[in-house]
């Protein structure tokens, strides 16, 4: 049986973080935790680039541009969509999720998904450093692991190109 080892070592990897300014209090907490996680695992702060976008709906477009450039080993998407009294929440959540899925389908760059979709501000705060941990740090760990795994998978499919 062939097994592909996982790694949480970010040394030498380059990361982009796309983060929404909307719900800024939550987004900043997600961003701080993601950067801390990356640097604690060996990433250089000089190799962590942050792109602020107006809202969560714009995250996929910025992620697509960054993924198309080939500079980054992984991209981390961060933000918070908090339910309101209209269907807007559902449209934004679907747009962000579908858009990021399309980026992952179209480009060989992993995307760590750290966009919160919550019923209220309390839930968002709980998931951005409160009682439920910090999803920004979790998205960073996912990005590191996938940035290590995807090249190994590709190499096993195309050993002649290594």
Structure description:
The chain is of the alpha/beta class. It has a single domain, classed as Lumazine/riboflavin synthase (Rossmann fold, 3-Layer(aba) Sandwich). The chain is built from 5 helices and 6 strands; from the N terminus they run βαβαβαβαββα. The strands form 2 sheets. It has a 4-stranded parallel β-sheet with strand order 2-1-3-4, sandwiched between helices. Strands 5-6 form a two-stranded antiparallel sheet. Helix 1 crosses helix 5 and helix 2 (59-68) packs parallel to helix 3 (88-106). It starts with 14 loop residues before the first strand and ends in a 5-residue tail after the last helix. The model has no long low-confidence stretch (mean pLDDT 95).
Q: Can you summarize the main beta sheet? A: 4 strands, parallel
Give the N-to-C terminal Cα separation: 21 Å
CATH homolog superfamily: Lumazine/riboflavin synthase
Shape: globular
> What is the CATH class name?
Alpha Beta
How many strands appear in the DSSP assignment? 6
Number of helices: 5
- Average pLDDT taken over every residue: 95
Low-confidence stretches: none
Query: Strand pairing plus helix content: what structural class?
Result: alpha/beta
Rg from Cα: 16 Å
Brief characterization of the structure:
The chain is an alpha/beta fold and 162 residues long. The protein has helices at 24-40, 59-68, 88-106, 121-127, 135-157, and strands at residues 15-20, 48-53, 74-82, 111-118, 128-130, 133-134. It has a single domain (15-150), classed as Lumazine/riboflavin synthase (Rossmann fold, 3-Layer(aba) Sandwich), CATH 3.40.50.960.
């Amino acid at each position: 049986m062939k097994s592909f080892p996982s790694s949480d070592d970010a040394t030498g990897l380059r990361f982009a973080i796309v983060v929404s300014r909307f719900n800024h209090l939550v987004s900043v907490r997600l961003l701080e935790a993601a950067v801390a996680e990356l640097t604690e695992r060996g990433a250089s702060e000089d190799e962590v680039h942050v792109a602020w976008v107006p809202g969560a709906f714009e995250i996929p477009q910025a992620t697509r541009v960054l993924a198309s450039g080939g500079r980054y080993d992984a991209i981390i998407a961060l933000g918070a969509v908090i339910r309101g009294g209209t269907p807007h929440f559902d449209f934004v959540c679907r747009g962000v999720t579908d858009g990021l899925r399309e980026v992952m389908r179209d480009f060989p760059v992993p995307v760590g998904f750290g966009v919160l979709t919550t019923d209220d501000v309390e839930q968002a705060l709980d998931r951005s450093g409160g009682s439920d941990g910090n999803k920004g740090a979790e998205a960073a760990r996912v990005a590191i692991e996938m940035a290590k795994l995807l090249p190994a998978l590709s190499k096993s499919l195309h050993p002649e190109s290594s």
